[in-house]
Amino acid sequence: MPQYDIVIIGSGLGGLLCGNILSKEGYNVCVIEKNRQIGGCLQTFKRDNVIFNTGLNYTEGLDKGQILNRYFKYFGILNKLKLKRLDIEGFEIVTLDGKEYKLAQGHENFKNTLLQDFPNEKEALDKYIHKLKTISNFFPLFNLSKEQANIIDTNLFNESAYGFINSITSDKKLRNVLAGTNSLYAGVKDKTPLYIHALINYSFINSAWRLVDGSFQLAELLADSITENGGVVLKKHEANKFIIENNEIKSIELTNSERIEAKHFISDVHPAKTLQMIDENQIKKAYRKRISELENTMGMFTLYITFKKDSFPYMNHNHYYFKDDDVWTSDYSEKNWPENFMFYTPAISKSEIFADGAIVITYMKFDELKKWENTFVEKRGDEYLDFKKRKAEKLLDLVEQKFPEIRSKIKSYYTSTPLTYRDYTGTVDGSSYGILKDYNAPFKSLILPKTKIPNLFFTGQNLNLHGILGVTIGSIMTCGELVGQEYLIDKVRNFSD
Q1: Would the CA dihedral through 452, 422, 185, 138 be positive or negative?
Q2: What angle do CA 72, 76, 82 make, to 5 degrees?
Q3: CATH number of 3-81+214-294+439-496, picked from 3.30.1440.10, 3.30.830.10, 3.50.50.60, 3.40.630.30
Q4: pLDDT score of 150 more than 60
Q5: CB 73 within 8 Å of CB 66
Q6: Ranges of each domain in the chain
Q7: Mean pLDDT lowest for which of 50-59, 157-166, 168-177?
Q8: pLDDT tens per residue, range 222-235
Q9: Region 246-261 average pLDDT
Q10: How far apart are CA 179 and CA 196, in angstroms?
């Protein structure tokens, strides 16, 4: 039976980052992945020779001295990534009632750009940036501070994103612009906490980037670093059951009955699915019940478009388009679907002038897919294919309102639903961003790295924040449980200063 210091279940970003960190520290690490391709939401695929991302569309904070730049230096991957910075004067464009509003990079630039459309809202925009900065500075791992935030005692988690934005301005249009990218976290008007909005938006305002030629390069670099440090990454190894002795995990049993022993186990799998691998008598019912009943974020319907050669321009920004005057659209009605979309052209090295493809994303409730929930990808039948075709054409009808000639430029298109996402990435019900955070009961969905089993730890987007930066910070928290968080922060700081 193979034996390791650390076994990591799942090779998503969180699992690979933990493997990178702990293998650097001399631990004998084994990452196991059930699929043929590593990476989770970092996976890419090709259609008609066009590279498409499955989850990571763009990232943040990679300029010199910024937080993700410093973390990536420590991981040893920053200078190996192919990066392209999005337009500084407008990396996001939010379209409301046919008018475009630009979101710019840099605090003052962000405010001054919006003041061109909202000249009387300087006070509101000052309050907005100040609040985002205050919240970001509160979290030590966002600024590599040694000081520990008193998370349990703070009221920070009890504030609503929707409520705060409404409190700083009576201008409905500005409210919608500031919240216009809330699909980045599957925002829910009466649930999403302000800290989720603040940490994500503040990081992107600092700087926004695309990974050129796909996000899979990040997964490959991290996997290479693990093997270079003496660890192993095993594909087509699906975890099935934890073998527990004396209240500690002894080994993980795979679906082929093989067992792998380790001193510690880290799960990059959804906490509810992780607990399903533990016998009922090995963990308290109350803990299992709390985790299993947590609500997950909305899934997405995605349209992957390939273009005829040199027919559609590369756009170095993202479009968020709304057909009505409410940008909080996760609770859509099927009759009015789709109510919005996010559109972007991936960055490619072969051309900076033309795009070879585009990705269009909008919400999709899992209830629409219930009749196929027990099927697997590419085995769902003609009715499912017809369903996706109808949805794709309806979404294209809306996209045409923004890009009127797009249909004439399309060579082919492909689609995915939350079911596709579930099957390839292992997320519950194809959730886009894992567990939904709720400011009405903030600590109910708070997932700590330490579990009720002493040598089992969680990592990944289900802890407290998703996205590259959020998962990076979650990985530092997880590994800090093993090597010491202050020690780890010191290492990152000293390496990147």
Answers
A1: positive
A2: 70
A3: 3.50.50.60
A4: no
A5: no
A6: 3-81+214-294+439-496, 105-211, 298-432
A7: 50-59
A8: 999 999 999 999 99
A9: 95
A10: 12
Nearest alpha carbon to residue 14 among 336, 228, 271, 366 = 271
Give the position of tokens 């309806």. Answer: 394
